[in-house]
């Protein structure tokens, strides 16, 4: 490359750099104070927003507001405060109202397209709080996931499983799925099936089961106790039992009744059959 060409390229680069630096200096001299004020406003405003969020949380903690709505309300108030702070800071920086409207309009469109799933989660979160298919503390099942609801936020709902695991489910998935709420009522039906042999006296067996369930302390609404022969399987006859128990003591009741039925069957000589295979040997000749 010719020396004159190299000199021209270097000169052009220096000229561009000089203009850029001069532009920064001019911007700092004319708008520097405004930008600094905007930054200070944003920092102070952000701190105030966090303080307001904590204050709201403290107020809600002492109020009778549904626990399901507390986290949601905190987050909504925080983001609204933060949006106001951003608008004030941009205005202080010299960004005009028309420019702000155009910028936020474009940003709103872009964000709406890019974050449509997240916006759906927010809308679903509002739906959950309004119609209350479940609340914090309820034990629910969604698809193959089940656990106790620990938190309902703007975007997600948190479940805690019996195995002490956390499940995070997007709110939009909840509102588009079938939700089974085990905590909707004070009592829960305990359904049990017992297999007995074909040589069992079914009437006596049904009466024995009725006696066990009627006398059990965990069973409530004893008049609603349901017992009947539900089918004849390959190796056994099945007896179905449905009893109402307190929701909070469901698994305790299940454990107690299985033990009592097994002990009663043993005492009465009622066998619980296992699969059997009868082989017939053909005679030779």
Q: Short summary of the structure?
A:
The chain is an alpha+beta fold and 285 residues long. The protein is elongated and about 110 Å long.
Ordered list of secondary-structure elements with their pairings:
Layout: H1 3-62, H2 67-92, H3 97-114, H4 116-131, E1 139-142, E2 145-152, E3 156-160, E4 166-170, H5 171-175, E5 179-181, E6 187-196, H6 202-215, E7 219-220, E8 226-232, E9 237-246, H7 250-268
Overview of this protein structure:
By secondary structure, this protein is an alpha+beta fold. It folds into 3 domains: 3-114, Helix Hairpins (Orthogonal Bundle), CATH 1.10.287; 134-181, SH3 type barrels; 187-268, Alpha-Beta Plaits, CATH 3.30.70.100. 55% of the residues lie in helices and 19% in strands. The chain has 7 helices and 9 strands. The strands form 2 sheets. The protein has a 5-stranded antiparallel β-sheet. Strands 6, 7, 8 and 9 form a 4-stranded antiparallel β-sheet that branches. Strand 1 and strand 2 (145-152) form a beta hairpin. It is elongated, with a radius of gyration of 35 Å. The model has no long low-confidence stretch (mean pLDDT 81).
Beta-strand percentage range: 15-25%
- Poorly predicted runs of 5 or more residues: none
* Major sheet: arrangement of strands: 4-3-2-1-5
What would you say the CATH architecture of the largest domain is? Orthogonal Bundle
N-to-C span: 110 Å
CATH fold name of the largest domain: Helix Hairpins
CATH class of the largest domain: Mainly Alpha
Shape: elongated
Radius of gyration: 35 Å
Mean model confidence by pLDDT: 81
Order of helices and strands: HHHHEEEEHEEHEEEH
Helix/strand/pairing category:
alpha+beta
Helix content: 55-70%
Number of domains: 3
Number of helical segments with 4 or more residues:
7
Largest sheet: 5 strands, antiparallel
The tally of beta strands, per DSSP, is: 9
